[in-house]
Design goal:
Structural class: alpha+beta
Number of domains: 2
CATH class of the largest domain: Alpha Beta
Strand content: 25-35%
Number of strands: 12
Distance between the termini: 16 Å
CATH topology of the largest domain: Ribosomal Protein S5, domain 2
Order of helices and strands: EEEHHEHHHEEEHHEHHEEHEE
CATH architecture of the largest domain: 2-Layer Sandwich
Bound molecules: adenosine-5'-triphosphate
Number of helices: 10
Largest sheet: 8 strands, mixed
Radius of gyration: 19 Å
Helix content: 25-40%
Length: 306
């Protein structure tokens, strides 16, 4: 029988994104509070023909075509890189595989789309090596350590839920799950924004401050969640893309408890108390030509699907 393994993994929003001063290695340390969203990538893995390598097919019906077309299907795709790393970890050659990625997370929207695919791939290949080669499965912690070297957001996509991410965001401290459902509207800009440029402007603005202690947070409602949402990069993002300032105000005027640039942007994430209102506003924005998606959180980390 042909092995067929299905997995899924979540998108993320940064509820808190604190950024420190640039270090000697050129990176900025971060102190982030991540929430996983039920906007999930689905990955199906099947054994490929001998010698065929890894073939990747990407599709989706909820995103504009340009998002699907922007996903590389060669060895620069993150799923290929983690597959190679996991095979090498076991001292194996990268297997011949056929991958199908059902994409729901906007590409280059600061929502960890590629990292989510990579997390889904790690879980799928972990299962594949177990079924095909009888190799003991790695734990989530072990997969996270392997993934961290290839993408800072991969560990969080493996754990999901609510978590603190430090260093470059890859050192994860899991927090108890939120006990309520939060409603999110995500406005995806049609214009890209270079992440290095945003960090450079952040350096110029010189807005550094001490990191907060996020470990003892108690969040019991969407209102409490809204009150703690912050993003140190937002002023830098606004100065590079002034139109986002107007979008943030518009979302709050339309009833969002809080609207905020997600990570380095350009996605703007808005939190709503009511799911109905959130969906109404998404419809309104879409009718005005602004691409908006809705989702809920929390969501589980990368997992096997039936
Ligand atoms: P993050 O939030 O982790 O910073 P992002 O969500 O902003 O990332 P991605 O959607 O991961 O951005 O894509 C960034 C770039 O990575 C894409 O433009 C694409 O060239 C490349 N890439 C590699 N693998 C993938 C993948 N599986 N899905 C999407 N993009 C990928």
């Amino acid at each position: 029988m042909t092995t067929l393994i299905r997995t899924s993994a979540p998108a993320k929003v940064n509820l808190v994104f604190e950024v420190g001063a640039i270090q000697a290695d050129g990176y900025h340390p971060v102190n982030s509070l991540f929430l996983a969203l039920n906007l999930r990538e689905e990955l199906t893995l099947a054994a490929g023909d001998t010698g065929s390598g890894i073939s990747i097919y990407v599709h989706g019906d909820t995103l504009p075509d340009r998002h699907i077309q922007a996903v590389p299907t060669d060895d620069t795709n993150l799923v290929y890189k983690v597959a190679h790393a996991l095979a090498a970890h076991h001292g194996l050659a990268t297997p011949d595989l056929q991958l199908d990625i059902h994409k729901r997370i906007p590409v280059a929207g600061g929502m960890a789309g590629g990292s989510s695919d990579a997390a889904a791939m790690l879980v799928a290949l972990n299962e594949f090596f177990f079924q095909e080669n009888g190799i003991s499965k790695l734990s989530t912690d072990e997969l996270a350590r392997l993934g961290a070297s290839l993408g800072s957001d991969i560990p969080f996509c493996l754990y999901g839920g609510l978590a603190i991410g430090t260093n470059r965001g890859e050192q994860i401290q899991e927090l108890p799950d939120l006990q309520f459902e939060s409603n999110w509207l995500l406005c995806i800009s049609s214009q890209g924004l270079s992440t290095p440029l945003v960090f450079h402007r952040f350096d110029e603005l010189d807005l550094f401050h001490e990191f907060s202690d996020l470990s003892a947070l108690q969040i019991n409602s969407s209102e409490e969640l809204a009150n703690l949402m912050t993003n140190d990069l937002e002023p830098a993002t606004f100065s590079l893309m002034p139109a986002l300032t107007g979008l943030k105000s518009k979302l709050e005027e339309l009833g969002a408890l809080k609207a905020m640039v997600s990570g380095s942007g350009p996605t703007v994430a808005a939190l709503f108390e009511s799911r109905g209102r959130c969906e109404d506003v998404a419809r309104l924005l879409n009718s005005e030509g602004i691409f908006a998606l809705t989702s809920t959180g929390p969501s589980a980390g990368a997992r096997l699907e039936a």
